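User: My advisor, Dr. K., asked me to get a structural model of this assembly before our group meeting. I'm new to this, so sorry if the format is off. These are the inputs:
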Amino acid sequence: MVEALQIQVNGLPRDCQSGSTIGDLLRELEIKTERVAVELNLEILDRKDFDVRSLKAGDRVEILSFIGGGGLAFGERLERGRTDV
Amino acid sequence: MYDDRLVIAGREFKSRLWVGTGKYKDFAETRKAIEVSGADVVTVAVRRVNITDRSKENLLDYIDPKKYTILPNTAGCYTVEDAVRYARLARAAGISDLVKLEVLGDEKTLFPDTTGLIEAARILIKEGFIVLPYTNDDPIVAKKLADIGCPAVMPLAAPIGSGLGIRNPYNLKIIMETVKVPIIVDAGVGTASDAALAMEYGADAVLMNTAIAGAKDPIAMAEAMKYAVHAGRLAYKAGRIPRKLYATASSPIEGML
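Assistant: The format is fine. Below is the predicted structure of the whole assembly, which you can bring to the meeting.
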């Protein structure tokens, strides 16, 4: 029997199998490893270590990638054609 | 058109208009606007991947990193630690060592925290990053950033997304005169004439997002900005005539009846 353990991925609780790696997690989530950055308990991982680093209970994983952005603080919304000043 | 390339940290850029990729209706519009703008540098932000909805498309499926220089930013970071963390994450995500460094000081103005900016820039430069800092229109801070090793400095025209245009032309001119690295006017541009003015003052490039993405017709504005930046650059190189209080006739008096 493979044991399940709970970790946190991008702030959300998630179960994974004991002994599984970051690489396994990314495959399970269908996330292509190119152009993502992974932080494990605040440590930024080298891409080549994805299949080496295994997960343990309580691990906090952050998976990040690039989104559209200019100089605007994230979350701010814009109304088109607004004239305020 | 003569060859007039912008060189930063050994990299050559064709376009002097750099654009952000935020706030468009969808990725198709983002791509179209960038294409029309002629920009070859585009900024992106680093954020959590949506793990609950994997159907969402990725920006970089639309913006080909082979065709464009992708410039990750640290937008939304208010501390040195956060900005450094996001810069490291951007590099780990595998694009390059380039980072548009932002350390913001205040949510309402989004003005840079310039002491934090210098501190974060020092750390990242030591780690081998090519740091392009978003800074205030302060000539002393701009010079310090260049002195510690930033290969270009990006002073604001006005607050991010404000569209107010160049609020402090004299400071920007002083920066362009005294700072010996390329100056990219970043943020605050509202319309084409603002961009042209920045270039006429001697900016090496202009970076904008909201002015294009927020226009009623972003694609048309992208085109307007392309011509504005180009016209401004040409006018700067050509050298404008001095301002004079009184008229000087253009037609000769000689030969008049």
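One thing worth pointing out at the meeting: Chain A has one helix and five strands.

User: Perfect, thanks a lot.
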